[in-house]
C-alpha cells in the first residue's frame, strides 16, 4: 500500500469558486517540506469538521456526531483514517475502527473520515503517493483560520432557524 504520512487539519479555505477546501499538513514537516494537501469538500462537511476541531458543538447532532455517539455505544472507536488514493481527481479514504469484534475498515469520503477523526481523536494519514500527486506549497493557499467564529455562529443560527418544510418540493 506504500508509505503513509500522518497529517493534521490546518484549516478550511475557500477556493476562487467559493468551494470549500480542507487543508492537510504533515505533522512532521521534514517529511514533505512545506506541502499541504487541499481536499475539496462540501460546505456541510466543512462546517462539521470546523465544529469538531473547535469543540463548539451544534444545537442538534450533525450526522458525524450521531455516528460517533453510536460507535461509542457499541464500544467501537475510530483508531485512524487514511486518505488512500486519488482516482480521476477524486480522493478516496478508509476509516479504521477498533471494535469488540476486532479491527474493522470501511471505505469513506475523506470529508466524512476526517470529520469522524476530528471528533474521536483518531489520527489522520495520507498515502505518500497522494501527497506526491496533489500536494501544493503551503504559500499557494489562503488559509481561513479554523477559529472563524462568525461562520460557525451563522451556521448555528441557520440550524436553529431552519424549518424542514422549507426543503419540501
Automatic annotation (TrEMBL):
Residues 4-138 form the BFN domain. SUPFAM superfamilies: Hypothetical protein TM0160 (SSF103256). Coiled coil: none annotated. Gene3D superfamilies: Bifunctional nuclease domain. Pfam families: BFN_dom (PF02577). InterPro entries: BFN_sf (IPR036104), Bi_nuclease_dom (IPR003729). This is Bifunctional DNase/RNase.
Amino acid at each position: 500500500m506504500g508509505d503513509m504520512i500522518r497529517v493534521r487539519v490546518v484549516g478550511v479555505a475557500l477556493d476562487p469558486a467559493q468551494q470549500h477546501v480542507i487543508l492537510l499538513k504533515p505533522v512532521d514537516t521534514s517529511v514533505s517540506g512545506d506541502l499541504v494537501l487541499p481536499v475539496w469538500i462540501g460546505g456541510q462537511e466543512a462546517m462539521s469538521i470546523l465544529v469538531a476541531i473547535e469543540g463548539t458543538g451544534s444545537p442538534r447532532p450533525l450526522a458525524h456526531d450521531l455516528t460517533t455517539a453510536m460507535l461509542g455505544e457499541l464500544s467501537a472507536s475510530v483508531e485512524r483514517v487514511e486518505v488512500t488514493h486519488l482516482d480521476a481527481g477524486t480522493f478516496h479514504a478508509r476509516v479504521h475502527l477498533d471494535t469488540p469484534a476486532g479491527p474493522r475498515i470501511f471505505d469513506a469520503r475523506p470529508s466524512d473520515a476526517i470529520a469522524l477523526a476530528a471528533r474521536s481523536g483518531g489520527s489522520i494519514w495520507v498515502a505518500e503517493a497522494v501527497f506526491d500527486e496533489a500536494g501544493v506549497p503551503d504559500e499557494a493557499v489562503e488559509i481561513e483560520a479554523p477559529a472563524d467564529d462568525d461562520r460557525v455562529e451563522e451556521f448555528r443560527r441557520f440550524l436553529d432557524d431552519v424549518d424542514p418544510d422549507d426543503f419540501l418540493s
